[in-house]
Amino acid sequence: MSDEFDILHPQALLFVLSGPSGVGKDTVLQRMKERDLPFHFVVTATTREQRPGEVHGKDYFFIAKEEFARMIEQDELLEYAVVYGDFKGIPKQQVRDALASGKDVIMRIDVQGAATIRKLVPDAVLIFLTTENETSMVGRLQSRKTETPEGLALRIATARQELKRVDDFDYVVINSEFHLDDTVEKIRAIITAEHHRTIKREIEL
């Protein structure tokens, strides 16, 4: 086939999966990993305590606040924020290495962090994950039973505000209860569509 007909030039893209607490971001990403989909899943660095069952380097990089401060000072983080009293951030080099390998990169961050990524990487694809309704979201937060009543009230109030930011995103996906694989397929469809754009996104870090 001559070069002039080779119109699809796949290149690695950066996808951001975001949304309020309680909508199932971690659960969706876990199912994508279980299905061995060909993406690089970014691991977030955090200063919060490791929870039972979590694995360092897989679920999060659990680091001391002193180390996190050093990473901030040396500009090693793509974005970072204080989330419920703890720091979370995305190591730049991890994302660069993944893109260079040719794999699409998927990162899970909060709504505030997604806005930061939009400024730094305008062609990143932002996906807003949500539930069918607010009642469902609150119910999922309550079922976690990992928060104090005050902490739960803060997460619910924050989530209600974050729902108003949906227009800042490129896509919205409803993660319906008991339809996890449907949610994954919707995200896969978005990724496929983005690779068939006539005007390609340019991902630069």
List the helices and strands and how they pair.
Blueprint: E1 14-18, H1 25-34, E2 39-41, E3 44-46, E4 60-62, H2 65-73, E5 77-83, E6 86-91, H3 92-100, E7 104-108, H4 111-120, E8 125-130, H5 134-144, H6 149-162, E9 171-174, H7 180-194
Parallel strand pairs: 1-7, 1-8, 2-7, 3-4, 8-9
Antiparallel strand pairs: 3-6, 5-6
How would you explain this protein's 3D organization?
With 205 residues, the protein is of the alpha/beta class. The protein has a domain at 3-42 and 103-194: P-loop containing nucleotide triphosphate hydrolases (Rossmann fold), CATH 3.40.50. Helix content is 38%, strand content 20%. The chain is built from 7 helices and 9 strands. The strands form 2 sheets. The protein has a 5-stranded parallel β-sheet, sandwiched between helices. Helix 1 crosses helix 7 and helix 5 (134-144) packs antiparallel against helix 6 (149-162). It is globular, with a radius of gyration of 18 Å.
